[in-house]
């Protein structure tokens, strides 16, 4: 089977306090440390697990981004992905959901994938719309919030996370699957992985390779517009309860007030 | 070469039989030893011929003087006499063998003094044997139990030695009786005359019977030896001779990361020959188990079992390693092991459990106490390396540690840009602002980010300022040294961090190798000034150890001093004026493993504390090189402690036993572990954990305002 996983390089969410550029109203990506989206690391783990259980399958990581995004793809290769594709083109700068999905879909289409993995959402933009848009562009069914995935014959079967538990959902292949965050353990690369990552196939595509017109993507093709940006309200300081013999009571009261008891 | 009074073999037929048996036994022995040596030859190479003169000197002291085992006096003395008894008895044996050829040893063969000495040693050994047997059979220290050779090996050996002695005594007795005193010996002269009544012919016959019995026992011993734990009799001298003379705190470098096939050890033959020789040399005394903090707190790690596990795994796979089919396989007598294990277990995760490997704090107590210089920690780390770099198999909490060190240059999810924040407002210059600083204060991750240890950093700054030291810190240019990564087994990450730090340190001209070349070239060092040694100081023993002892492996040579030593120096040079005895609280000092055992710093911190405290230092039960780990080394600070008692609480309880009010330490990890341990045993009211720098800083305040709050009053 040909399995794909869409990944993204983002400013390190753990150390970088996301800064927004007031002029472009976009996330500042220069001068910060960039990493493979930690959410994607777990999605990759899910894809690797499936590939290994299926046997005779190839897993390709695909990303759209500037040249620096190579690093993120190398990490994916080191984790055990077989092949990487980077779509990089100056005309892609400023792409919105639509432009991103259109580009990724165009690249995927050339590959005739059987299964496409995406994270539910990226850890920087959090729109959560790209996987759906890719499915739409490719005319494929989409399975969402998977915490477990199996292939049975020509069907993909997932356990879909719900508020109370999970649903078993299936669809014919090919399909797009989004992985619920925290369902899989990220893989720390082995030395063999790191070393072989340097030798694994790595292709770079431009817009013209995909037969896309610059007007369809990037700033030029964007249909989305950020109207304004503002700071999220800081979380109010917590309340510290010191036990003077009545802590249990205070806590019970608190929980009751919030209808948690 | 005077002939013996009575020919022991009774003529050439006997002598011929003797020669045949003797040569056969020797051949079997030789083949068995050959098999063991072949296994070593198949292992990785390693050079252990540096420091030759010291090697020879120490060899005489440890092997001939038995200085290692003598540290444990009663079994030590017993061992001392057994060892020397053995040597002397060998001469006696030679004498008896020469008898078969109608000869004797020149000079001592018929010498009564020698004969008396020989028998005195026989008696010594006999007494020692009783001591050993009592220990093994009645006292039964737990550390003596053997998984590898089973409970009987020890007794078989003791029995064989006893038989050797008994038959020797009988040979002498009947030799004396048969020759009517011409064949003089001490024991013979005691017991021989009582057998005169049997008549000469009977005595001669009995003499011959016991001569044969003696020779055969000795030869069986020889054949049995290579497969038994008493292999150490042969291997120990070599092991002591080839022990590590490099810095004790340095783990071996894993070379050529880019091109190697394996990363660490998952099969016994991937160890170096010296690491495998350790297994042959292990006497199974179990001393290492008695001092191990993991063993002592109920973890599944016993350092002795690590050493024996490696040996077991090596011997299990002996045919595979030598290559099949091989000589030793075809000649069962030549094989050190007869019963091959049915199912061969893997070394890691089989013979040695992963839990055992992860439980090690790399405290080095086992290596310190081992009488035969066995190196446990490099083996444990080698096997961890395989788990981490080949299998990506480690406690889950370590993943974020690795990722953070790699991405952020510190163990947490904090941007390294904030590394100098702790020093805001303290007037601490960055190296970039003060490139000619005489001293670089390497703050380390704990000093930079950990709330508790920032106080130590602040205290140290106060001290440096008071002493007028021209110093600076690196701030965001400093990154994690990589020490926890290396000790957990991530050599790749350590090398990455080390290279990065070495580049920074070199750019400020701290590399002594570089300064020397620069000085040699133009007579000037850094910035065109005459070169003076530029020092790095740090309050973190782990940073200290890895920069000092391990960075040289990658070309970074620096003058690094632990802050306790630097403070002691400042005091002795008169640069710090401190009110002596200002602190009246009862104080005990914990030796951090990487300051004490690994780098031999015991006196300096004690000197400083003794000056400041009116009661001096009250020692804990285990102190100096016997110090008991806080539980935080070897990356353990970053792992959960899921099994057994807590190491940190065990040590805190020891501090409490001294009734001290202050537990002084000199390591950020110790401080962290002890703060936690004190809370764990609910002793916050009774015991304060303080870094030596904090105590000194308080002394400075005291000196400034003498009437101010007197600590402890
Ligand atoms: S280094 Fe310390 S913890 Fe590790 S095995 Fe030796 S004594 Fe035990
Ligand atoms: S490793 Fe050393 S201390 Fe431990 S049992 Fe063997 S000889 Fe004794």
Automatic annotation (TrEMBL), chain A:
Native species: Thermogemmatispora aurantia
Record's protein name: Electron transfer flavoprotein small subunit
Domain Electron transfer flavoprotein alpha/beta-subunit N-terminal intervals: 24-214
A molecular-function term among this protein's GO annotations: electron transfer activity
Pfam families documented for this protein: ETF
InterPro entries: ETF_a/b_N (IPR014730), ETF_b (IPR012255), ETF_beta_N (IPR033948), Rossmann-like_a/b/a_fold (IPR014729)
UniProtKB/TrEMBL annotation, chain B:
GO cellular component: plasma membrane
UniProt keyword Lipid biosynthesis present: no
Protein name, entry field: Fe-S oxidoreductase
Annotated transmembrane regions: 12-34, 80-101, 113-134, 155-178, 205-225
Alphabetical UniProt keywords: 4Fe-4S, Iron, Iron-sulfur, Membrane, Metal-binding, Oxidoreductase, Transmembrane, Transmembrane helix
Database matches in Pfam families: CCG, Fer4_10
PROSITE patterns: 4FE4S_FER_1, 4FE4S_FER_2
Occurrences of domain 4Fe-4S ferredoxin-type (ranges): 273-293, 350-379
Source organism: Thermogemmatispora aurantia
Gene Ontology molecular function terms on file: 4 iron, 4 sulfur cluster binding; metal ion binding; oxidoreductase activity
């Amino acid at each position: 089977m040909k399995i794909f996983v869409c990944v993204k390089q983002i400013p390190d969410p753990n150390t970088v306090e996301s800064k927004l550029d007031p002029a472009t109203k976009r996330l500042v990506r220069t001068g910060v440390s960039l990493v493979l989206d930690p959410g994607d690391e777990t999605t990759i783990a899910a894809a690797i697990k499936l590939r290994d259980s299926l046997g005779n399958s190839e897993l390709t990581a695909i990303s759209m981004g500037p040249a620096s995004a190579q690093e993120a793809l190398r990490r994916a290769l080191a984790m055990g992905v077989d092949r990487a594709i980077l779509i990089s083109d100056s005309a892609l700068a400023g792409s919105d959901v639509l432009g991103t999905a259109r580009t990724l879909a165009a690249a995927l289409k050339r590959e005739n994938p059987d299964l496409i993995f995406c994270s539910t959402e990226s850890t920087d933009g959090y729109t959560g719309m790209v996987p759906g848009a890719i499915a739409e562009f490719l005319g494929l069914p989409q399975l969402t919030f998977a915490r477990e995935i199996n292939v049975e014959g020509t069907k993909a079967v997932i356990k879909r996370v719900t508020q109370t538990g999970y649903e078993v959902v299936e669809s014919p292949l090919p399909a797009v699957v989004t992985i619920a965050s925290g369902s899989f353990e990220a893989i720390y690369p082995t030395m063999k992985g790191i070393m072989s990552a340097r030798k694994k196939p790595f292709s770079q595509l431009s817009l013209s390779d995909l037969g896309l017109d610059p007007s369809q993507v990037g700033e030029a093709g964007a249909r989305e517009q950020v109207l304004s940006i503002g700071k999220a309200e800081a979380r109010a300081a917590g309340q510290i309860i010191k036990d003077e013999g009545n802590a249990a009571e205070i806590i019970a009261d608190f929980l009751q007030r919030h209808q948690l008891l | 070469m005077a002939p013996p009074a009575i020919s022991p073999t009774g003529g050439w037929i006997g002598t011929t039989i003797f020669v045949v048996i003797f040569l056969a036994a020797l051949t079997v022995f030789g083949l068995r030893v050959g098999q063991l040596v072949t296994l070593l030859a198949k292992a990785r190479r390693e050079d252990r011929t540096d420091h030759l003169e010291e090697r020879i000197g120490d060899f005489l002291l440890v092997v001939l003087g038995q200085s290692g085992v003598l540290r444990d006096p009663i079994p030590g003395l017993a061992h001392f006499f057994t060892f020397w008894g053995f040597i002397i008895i060998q001469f006696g044996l030679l004498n008896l063998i020469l008898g078969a050829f109608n000869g004797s040893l020149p000079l001592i063969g018929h010498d009564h003094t020698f004969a008396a000495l020989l028998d005195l040693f026989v008696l010594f050994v006999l007494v020692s044997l009783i001591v050993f047997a009592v220990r093994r059979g009645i006292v039964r220290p737990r550390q003596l139990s053997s998984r590898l050779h089973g409970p009987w090996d020890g007794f078989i050996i003791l029995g064989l030695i006893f038989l050797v002695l008994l038959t020797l005594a009988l040979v002498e007795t009947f030799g004396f009786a048969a020759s009517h005193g011409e064949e003089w010996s001490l024991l013979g002269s005691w017991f021989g005359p009582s057998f005169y009544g049997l008549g000469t012919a009977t005595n001669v016959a009995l003499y011959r019977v016991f001569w044969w019995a003696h020779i055969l026992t000795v030869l069986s011993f020889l054949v049995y030896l290579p497969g038994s734990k008493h292999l150490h009799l042969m291997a120990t001298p070599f092991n002591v001779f080839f022990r590590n003379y490099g810095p004790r705190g340095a783990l071996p470098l894993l070379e050529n990361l880019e091109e190697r096939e394996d990363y660490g050890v998952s099969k016994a033959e991937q160890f170096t020959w010296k690491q495998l020789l350790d297994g042959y040399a292990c006497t199974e005394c179990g001393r290492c188990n008695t001092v191990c903090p993991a063993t002592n707190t109920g973890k599944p790690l016993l350092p002795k079992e690590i050493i024996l596990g490696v040996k077991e795994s090596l011997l299990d796979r002996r045919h595979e390693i030598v290559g099949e089919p091989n000589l030793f396989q075809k000649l069962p007598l030549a094989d050190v092991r007869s019963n091959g294990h049915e199912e061969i277990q893997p070394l890691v995760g089989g013979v040695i459990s992963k839990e055992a490997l992860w439980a090690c704090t790399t405290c080095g107590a086992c290596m310190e106490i081992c009488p035969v210089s066995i190196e446990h920690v490099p083996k444990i780390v080698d096997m961890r390396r395989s788990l981490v770099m080949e299998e990506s198999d480690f406690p889950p909490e370590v993943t974020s540690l690795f990722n953070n060190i790699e991405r952020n240059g510190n163990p947490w999810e904090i941007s390294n840009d904030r590394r100098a924040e702790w020093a805001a407002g303290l007037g601490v210059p960055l190296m970039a602002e003060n490139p000619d600083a005489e001293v670089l204060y390497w703050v380390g991750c704990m000093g930079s980010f950990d709330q508790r240890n920032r106080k130590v950093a602040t205290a140290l700054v106060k001290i440096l300022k008071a002493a007028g030291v021209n110093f600076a810190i690196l701030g965001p240019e400093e990154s994690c040294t990589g020490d926890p990564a290396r000790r957990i087994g991530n050599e790749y990450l350590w090398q990455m961090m080390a290279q990065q730090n070495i580049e920074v340190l070199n750019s400020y001209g701290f590399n002594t190798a570089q300064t020397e070349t620069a000085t040699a070239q133009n007579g000037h060092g850094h910035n065109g000034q005459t070169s003076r040694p530029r020092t790095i100081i740090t309050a973190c023993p782990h940073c200290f150890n890895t920069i000092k002892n391990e960075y040289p492996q990658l070309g970074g040579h620096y003058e690094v001093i632990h802050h306790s030593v630097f403070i002691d120096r400042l005091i002795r040079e008169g640069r710090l004026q401190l009110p002596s005895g200002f602190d009246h609280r009862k104080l005990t000092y914990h030796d951090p493993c990487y300051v004490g055992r690994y780098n031999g710093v015991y006196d300096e911190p004690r000197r400083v504390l003794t000056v400041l405290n009116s009661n001096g230092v009250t020692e804990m039960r285990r102190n100096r090189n016997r110090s008991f780990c806080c539980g935080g080394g070897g990356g353990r600070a970053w792992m959960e402690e899921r099994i057994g008692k807590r190491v940190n609480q065990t040590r805190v309880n020891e501090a409490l036993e001294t009734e001290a009010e202050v537990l002084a330490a000199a390591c950020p990890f110790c401080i962290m572990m002890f703060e936690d341990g004190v809370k764990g045993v609910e002793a916050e009211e009774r015991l304060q954990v303080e870094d030596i720098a904090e105590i000194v800083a308080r002394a400075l305040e005291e000196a400034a305002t003498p009437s101010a709050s007197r600590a402890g009053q």
